[in-house]
Amino acid sequence: MIYLVLSDIHGNLEALEAVLRHSRRKHYDAVLFLGDAVGYGASPNPVVDWLRTSRIPVIAVRGNHDRVCSGLDEGEYFNQYALRAVQWTGAHLEVRNLRWLQALPEGPRQVEPGLAICHGSPVDEDAYIFSGYDAQMAFDRLPEQVVFFGHSHVPSLFAADGREAVPALSVRLLAGTRETITIEDGIRYLINPGSVGQPRDRDPRAAYALYDADTRRVRQYRVPYRISSARNRIVKAGLPAVLGDRLFYGS
Predict the structure, then answer these.
(1) Is the pLDDT of residue 166 over 80?
(2) What's the CA gap between 135 and 167, in Å, rounded?
(3) Per the CB 3.0–4.6 Å rule, which of 6, 67, 68, 241 could disulfide with 75?
(4) What span, in angstroms and rounded, lies between the C-alpha atoms of 86 and 37?
(5) pLDDT of residue 221
(6) What is the CB neighbour count within 10 angstroms for residue 27?
(7) What is the pLDDT of residue 168?
């Protein structure tokens, strides 16, 4: 079973289309979506349409922006730009897409034995995993060997090696155009594939991953896309220009 792993598209149709073009020749059987289809970007309906109607099965969990944009939460903790984007998105979502977002399950969600997905931490869908301490709490929460998560928009790998008397925890950022991770026995993994639509690791390229559960390999990719088109769409929609400008810097 091969999975296309996507997270944090945030209404960025140009980035999603670039990822789909890049992955077109790579066979996969299902999509793992880690949440935040909408928010920030100006194409919420085309993005949700693709997730909702995909001919390839989509196994998804909700993100915090999905929850707030669909009216399940007030979002009072969002900053002013995110809140304006939430209000705009909520006003423009088609009813069928609104209902799809509202029906997304809260993570964590088991995909198959040994594999789970979530948006933020398995402890709390709104919590970030940035540190070894955050990762250890997440490992304590779930028994699966491989967990894909999003929310931070930073491609990263946390590995807990239980083969030694004193378990070791390692942390690594996933940088570059392509990274390959081999899943080893005795090691547990928390893997963030990065954000499709709003990277925050100073690399503006869209990020995604493929996971082959049979060969036990994860391949993480970075893909250039038409950032100027995504930015212009944001500005024309009347959203804050900063939401488009930040795309050029991956921040």
Answers:
(1) no
(2) 13
(3) 68
(4) 12
(5) 98
(6) 10
(7) 87
Residues 6+ apart with CB under 8 A from 226: 14, 18
Q: What is the mean pLDDT of residues 48-55?
A: 98
- Return the beta strands (E) in 51-186 as ranges: 58-60, 109-112, 115-117, 146-148, 156-161, 168-173, 178-182
64 closest CA partner among 145, 135, 153, 163: 153
Rg (CA), the chain: 17
Q: What is the mean pLDDT of residues 174-200?
A: 96
CB 101 within 8 A of CB 48: yes
Q: How many CB atoms lie within 10 A of CB 214?
A: 7
Mean pLDDT within 200-204: 97
Low-confidence winner among 87-101, 166-180, 186-200, 210-224 (lowest mean pLDDT): 166-180
Half-sphere exposure of 194 (CA within 13 A, CB side): 35
Q: Which two tokens stand for residue 139?
A: 């490992």
Structure tokens at 49: 């349409």
Q: For residues 195 and 208, give the distance between their C-alpha atoms in angstroms, rounded to a whole number.
A: 7
Which tokens in the block code for residue 31? 């999509």
Which phi and psi (to 5°) does residue 104 adopt?
-60, 135
pTM for this entry: 0.96
Q: Helix or strand or coil: residue 8?
A: coil
d(CA 12, CA 47): 7
